[in-house]
Design goal:
The complex is a heterodimer. Chain A is mainly alpha-helical. Chain A has helices spanning about 5-15, 35-45, 60, 65-75. In chain A, helix 1 (about 5-15) packs antiparallel against helix 2. The radius of gyration of chain A is 11 Å and the shape is globular. Chain B is of the alpha/beta class. Among the domains of chain B are: about 20-145, Rossmann fold (3-Layer(aba) Sandwich); about 180-295, Rossmann fold; about 410-515, 2-Layer Sandwich (GMP Synthetase, Chain A, domain 3). Helices cover about 30% and strands about 25% of the residues of chain B. Chain B is built from 16 helices and 27 strands. In chain B, helix 1 packs antiparallel against helix 2 (about 30-45). Classes of the chains: A mainly alpha, B alpha/beta. The interface of A and B includes residues 16, 31 and 35 of A.
């Protein structure tokens, strides 16, 4: 899993957001509920993981790096 | 009699009880009444007008409610403006509504063109305004229950938003019936999900005032991170939710109740779209003793006119009935000859009664087209609202939602006129022709366009003009759209071609399918 793959998914969902720059994607309301649902299902499928409700916290989605760490952790738990 | 009486009664009964709370603070009924007085006096002293619109840049906070109450007390009406939509769209709304002033809470909309130079007032200054209140007293004496209370803007097919104008009387006709039908009282804690520019929120706000209950304005993040949603419902001891269907679906989609099952939830009411029974059954399995209610109705008849309290188990493939009319609302199902439908027939849902909106603000043509004389009555004037929604009378004697007469759709809880999207699509330089359809099965708005433009360019252009939920989810570039004999885009053929999988109109399948996934939701 590399950063480009994650960014590709994110840009498909929201072509208008500069994901590398944003640090508060959730706290500032940049990503809404429908974005998150789409992103979570794309992540699950692409990276063969199962993002659980317990993982759905702002701290895991506020930045691209946080999302990368979450995916990495879930892949290692597999 | 106005809704301010609800506030005054509640402030008398429960002066210190928290009426409305958001993530950071709460306000008691007594404080709310006091705050509203300051705001009303400031507006009266400054403008001295009555029955004029005042816009409020809303957010999910108690200040928005205080501003609404202040405007209502000053005998003007409020126009809630969501700050998350494109500035160009806000300008369009302002142009149509011509408000006397814009009340800014926090965000004062930097970058707004505001060509009419509408004064922007800071909420904090209004809330602290000091006065003897003599002028306000004079104004209040003249209040009528037929005065407008709010205008909520909805999608208009021509690209100009329509402001649905609702009177105090409309709300005071509906809310007491609503509260009594579902046995609501001062013990209720409403968990507010609907933004204040949606009339779903009218039920939360005015039921809270009418019952002397309380309402928690759930922060936006609760709906993107459903773990926080269930935490908030439990910690804030929410008893009642009146939500959009899409919000209920979010919780199921991520299995939120695995984390925590809110312990106080007793009443679950939903509206806005057809509720998928499969998802509803998940909710019912976690809340076996709660009351579940399917609500139906457009903004034009003040929230809802039909309700169905779930009284039995439903199979996943069953549909929920629309139910029966609320007390003091007349609901008719009329076929093409304006006769009541028979079993197995489909007809338009039509509504009469005090609940009918005053009309569309500064839009007599659209008002006359939708609010008509009841065709079944040729003896005296009786206004009827034609919803444009269709219902089927089933063999079981129940009515079921059966789509639209026109090109209006419901997508993610929002009312959208496909023609409005087309208007903006067609206005983009380089786009020759465009048409949209709604793929109900995949829950996607599909745009077809003839142009040499890249879809990213088109999305960028649309995003500047339209709210996010109106941006199509799928863009199909086609060589030529099918044309009917009279030279118009043949929607029927386009839909057939789309469903058959040949989307370019020539049968050569040159369509360039690309999903934006901008709004796609798998719920």
């Amino acid at each position: 899993m590399d950063m480009e793959q994650i960014l590709k998914i994110l840009r498909e969902v929201r072509p208008d957001v500069e994901f590398e720059k944003e640090k508060k994607l959730i706290d500032d309301g940049i990503l809404d509920s429908f974005d998150i649902i789409t992103i979570v299902s794309e992540f699950n499928e692409t990276f063969d993981i199962d993002i659980d409700v317990e993982d759905l916290e702002p701290v895991n989605f506020n930045t691209v790096e946080a999302m990368q760490q979450l995916i990495k952790r879930l892949q290692e738990e597999e | 009699m106005t809704v301010i009486d609800y506030l005054q009664n509640a402030a008398m009964r429960f002066p210190d009880k928290i009426a409305f709370a958001d993530q950071d603070k709460g306000i008691s009924f007594g404080e709310l009444l006091e705050r509203a007085r300051h705001i009303a006096a400031a507006l009266t002293d400054r403008f001295g007008t009555v029955n004029e619109p005042v816009a409020v840049v809303i957010d999910r906070n108690v200040e928005s409610i205080c501003a609404f109450m202040g405007i209502a007390m000053s005998r003007n009406f409020y126009v809630p403006i969501g700050s998350m939509q494109p500035l160009q769209r806000i300008d369009l709304i302002l142009e149509q509504m011509q408000p006397k002033a814009i009340i800014a809470i926090g965000s004062s909309l930097p970058g707004l063109a505001n060509p009419d130079r509408i004064p922007i007032l800071q909420y904090d200054e209004l809330a602290e305004y000091e006065t003897d209140g003599d002028r306000l007293c004079e104004v209040r004496k003249g209040c009528l229950d037929t005065d407008p209370l709010y205008a909520i803007c909805t999608s208009g097919s021509t690209g100009v938003p329509k402001g649905v104008l609702i009177s105090h009387r409309c709300v005071m006709d509906f809310i007491p019936v609503f509260c009594e039908t579902f046995s609501m009282d001062e013990r209720e804690v409403f968990g507010n999900q609907a933004p204040f520019d949606f009339d779903v929120s009218v039920k939360d706000i005015y039921s809270t005032l009418y019952c002397g209950a309380s309402m928690y304005i759930m922060p936006r993040v609760c709906f993107s991170m459903p773990k926080l949603m269930v935490d908030a419902l439990d910690e804030r001891r929410v008893t009642t939710i009146v939500w959009a269907v899409s919000a209920l679906c979010i919780a199921v989609g991520v299995n939120a109740f695995k984390h925590r099952v809110p312990g106080h939830l007793k009443k679950i009411l939903f509206s806005g779209e057809v509720m998928p029974v499969k998802l509803l059954n998940v909710w019912r399995s976690y809340f076996p003793d709660a009351m579940f209610v399917n609500l139906y109705g457009p903004t034009e008849i003040t929230c809802n006119c039909l309700y169905y309290i779930l009284d039995r188990a439903f199979e996943n493939n069953e549909k929920l009935p629309l139910g029966i009319p609320f007390q003091n609302e007349g609901v008719f199902f009329l076929n093409e000859n304006d006769e009541p439908v028979k079993t197995g027939e489909t007809g338009e849902i039509c509504v009469t009664g005090t609940c009918l909106a005053i009309g569309y603000y500064r839009n007599p043509e659209r008002t006359e087209a939708a609010f008509v004389q009841n065709p079944c009555n040729d003896r005296y004037p009786e206004r009827m609202y034609r919803t444009g929604d269709l219902a089927l009378l089933g063999k079981d004697g129940q009515y079921y939602f059966a789509g639209r007469k026109d090109f209006q759709i419901k997508h993610m809880g929002h009312r959208i006129e496909l023609e409005e999207i087309e208007t903006f699509l067609g206005a983009i330089g380089g786009v020759r022709r465009a048409s949209c359809l709604f793929d109900e099965k995949r829950n996607k708005i599909v745009a077809f366009y003839e142009a040499d433009l890249d879809k990213t360019e088109i999305i960028k252009a649309l995003k500047a003009e339209l709210p996010k939920y109106m941006i199509p989810n799928l863009f199909l570039q086609v060589a030529q759209l099918p044309i009917s004999k009279n030279g118009k885009i043949d929607r029927q053929r386009l839909r057939e071609q789309y469903l058959a999988g040949s989307w370019d109109g020539t049968g050569t399948n040159t369509a360039n399918e690309e999903e934006t996934a901008a709004n796609s939701s798998e719920t």
